[in-house]
Amino acid sequence: MDRFVLFPLLAAAVLGAGLALPVGNVLLLACIPALVLAVISAVHHAEVIAHKVGEPFGTLVLALAVTVIEVALVLSMMLAGGANAATVPRDTIYSAVMIICNGVVGICLLLGGLRHREQLFRIEGTGSGLAALVVMSTLVLVLPSLTTSAPGGSYTASQLLFVAAGSLVLWLVFVFIQTVRHRDYFLPAVGAEDESVHAPPPGTREALISFALLLVALVSVVGLAKLLSPALETLVKEWHAPTAVVGTLIAIIVLAPETWAAIRAARADRLQTSMNLAIGSALASIGLTIPVVVMAAVWLELPLTLGVATKDMALLALTFIVGAITLGSGRTNLMQGAIHLVVFAAFLFLTFVP
């Protein structure tokens, strides 16, 4: 049996054992390699699908699959946690934006710059996506702390519905220009070094099998992350770290498949694919998560706190200012990657030491 068929099945088996049996130390240790195998498998099958359907549809498949499962995880935590989970969507979205815009983009620019000196991408697509991300992040994460109709970083029901509708509309318009109206803005540069670009595309049957295995791998990633979360919470308490650390760690795990796929593309001198994954994933993280979370919060009368602290607003502003400068020319080098990674390091450090 091919290893990329076996890996997601093994990860799913470990997840099934974790759901059916008491979670002991041995099972927790088994979850870690199973998680790694699931991430590797997810990236492989996403690349198979991408090669079949072409760009930018391939990167959209991985971004959508990860985001939909992430939405399900956030919603399940909100329903199970009640008032204690009011900040889960905020922490998840904020962490995802910072991880993607600084961690993923930074390491792609750094490794791509080290290997290829300079890399190119089209600013027409990436620039419009970044602008939409700035607007969505401000509406969802910043304005709740500045409005006066509801206290404590919250929105009223009407405000929540407006923000949810605005986020969904921006995401849908971005997907439309990415896949229909201006698809050429998101195509990788000609002459990529990745040999798979020149290989014959897989057949329909192989692509459908990869799609099914991609879903299995992504469900396993999220499920194994959830199994590991109690151990992470215990570790965080022993370190006397803020509770937001758990959300950050889980976000890193959930975004691992997209991160690895983006890194592989950057090393193959296909930085446009990396940018498609990064910006598209960040937009989907808000544009899909917020409407579902808002509908659940309004319908079920769940508490929801979206506004971030002043420190986090400053880091968000720094991220978008730096991103506008480093990604504004369509030409990158390793210095730009180093800048983003320093901002990412500041985000991680201040999460542990607020």
What do you see in this structure?
- It is a single chain.
- The chain is mainly α.
- It has a single domain (58-189, 225-352), classed as A middle domain of Talin 1 (Up-down Bundle).
- Helix content is 76%, strand content 1%.
- It has helices at residues 3-20, 25-53, 57-81, 88-116, 123-142, 157-181, 204-238, 244-254, 256-267, 271-287, 289-300, 310-326, 334-352, and strands spanning 119-120, 331-332.
- The chain has a two-stranded antiparallel ribbon with strand order 1-2.
- The longest helix has 35 residues, at 204-238.
- It starts with a helix and ends with a helix.
What is the β-strand count? 2
Classified in CATH, the superfamily is: NCX, central ion-binding region
| Rounded radius of gyration (Å) | 20 Å
CATH fold description: A middle domain of Talin 1
Structural class: mainly alpha
Helix content: over 70%
CATH architecture: Up-down Bundle
Work out the count of structural domains: 1
- Please describe the biggest sheet, giving its number of strands, its sense, and whether it closes into a barrel: 2 strands, antiparallel
Low-confidence stretches: 191-198
Secondary-structure element string: HHHHEHHHHHHHHEH
What is the first-to-last residue Cα distance?
Answer: 48 Å
Assembly type of the chains comes to: single chain
Strand content: under 5%
Strand order within the widest beta sheet? 1-2
* Chain-averaged pLDDT: 85
Number of helices: 13
Form type: globular
What is the CATH class?
Mainly Alpha
Organism: Hydrogenophaga luteola
Keywords: Membrane, Transmembrane, Transmembrane helix
Domain Sodium/calcium exchanger membrane region: 26-179, 210-352
Subcellular location: Membrane
